[in-house]
Every structure is written in structure tokens, then in C-alpha cells.
Design brief:
Blueprint: H1 7-33, H2 38-44, H3 49-59, H4 67-92, E1 95-99, E2 111-116, E3 123-124, H5 126-156
Helix pairs in contact: 1-3, 1-4, 1-5, 3-4, 4-5
């Protein structure tokens, strides 16, 4: 079979992005679980990520958190929202060859490998996807660590100071 795209180079990067989102969604569910009953969680886990993020943002002010920790968590949740746009682009659109739009910087290049939204208004190159996957991994690690630290803090009766990701 003839391949027009280098799937073998894209697959590991896409995999890293999706693994990071699995960690982020798990941490978001656990942060919700700290505030909600088991019965509520049965419903909440069926909501879309955006809806769970919105809910978590709305209940954070009610949580007994320091201003610093509340800001760290809100910043992380905002990053998840931003990264979700890239995840959705990758999840719902094909990897393809696209006619290169010459801006004067690459006169010899006629085609580029990209994932392009069906509407044509969003696209991502392999290098930009690598950057997004790296950032998603960093955010996932920080969000997961924040959930664990807050959970342990609740059990120990003291609030830890959360670290912001680099």
C-alpha cells in the first residue's frame, strides 16, 4: 500500500497526547469526586470534558483552598481546556497532505503533512503537535500531582502548597 503521509512519525506523538489526556481526565474526575457523592459521580463521569471542567471551576471557590492553590488549579484547568482544542482537532480529523500556502518563507515546498479540520480553519503540523503533546504531558503530571497532594492533605487535615508546572 502506498502511503502519502508518515504515519509512523505521527502515531507516537498522537499516542502521547492521548495518554496525557487520559491522565488529565482521571485527575479531573478525582478532583470532582472529592466534592461529590458516589451517586453524583455516576452522572458526572458521563459528561463531556468541557462540562466537567466548567463544573469543577464553579465549585472550586466553595472549596477550602488557599488563594494560591485555587489559582494553580484554575490555571491547570484552563490549560486543559486550551489543549482539548488540539486533542479534538486530532481526534476528529484526518492526517493528510495539504497544499502549502506560500508566505514567502518556503518557496520550494508545495505540500505539507498536517491534520486539518474539515472546515479548513484549523490545522496542526507534526512539530506543533509535538509541542502540544509535551505540554499536555506536563499539565497531566501537574494535575495528577495536585489531586494526590490535595487528597493526602484532606486525609492529614492540612492543605499542601501546590506547585505550578514549568
Amino acid at each position: 500500500m502506498v502511503r502519502l503521509t508518515r504515519d509512523d512519525q505521527w502515531a507516537p506523538v498522537i499516542g502521547r497526547l492521548f495518554i496525557a489526556f487520559g491522565v488529565m481526565e482521571s485527575a479531573i474526575n478525582e478532583l470532582l469526586r472529592q466534592q461529590c457523592s458516589d451517586q453524583q459521580m455516576k452522572f458526572l463521569v458521563s459528561l463531556q470534558l468541557k462540562q466537567r471542567l466548567d463544573l469543577l471551576r464553579s465549585i472550586l471557590p466553595e472549596r477550602n483552598l488557599s488563594d494560591w492553590n485555587r489559582k494553580v488549579l484554575l490555571d491547570l484547568l484552563n490549560e486543559v481546556s486550551h489543549l482539548a482544542k488540539t486533542r479534538n482537532l486530532v481526534a476528529h480529523n484526518p492526517l493528510t497532505l495539504s497544499r502549502f500556502k506560500n508566505d514567502g518563507s518556503a518557496k520550494d515546498k508545495l505540500w505539507e503533512e498536517v491534520i486539518v479540520a474539515e472546515s479548513g480553519d484549523r490545522r496542526i503540523t507534526l512539530e506543533a503537535l509535538r509541542v502540544a503533546a509535551d505540554r499536555a504531558s506536563t499539565v497531566a503530571e501537574a494535575l495528577h500531582a495536585s489531586w494526590i497532594e490535595l487528597d493526602l492533605g484532606v486525609m492529614e487535615g492540612k492543605e499542601p502548597e501546590l506547585m505550578r508546572p514549568c
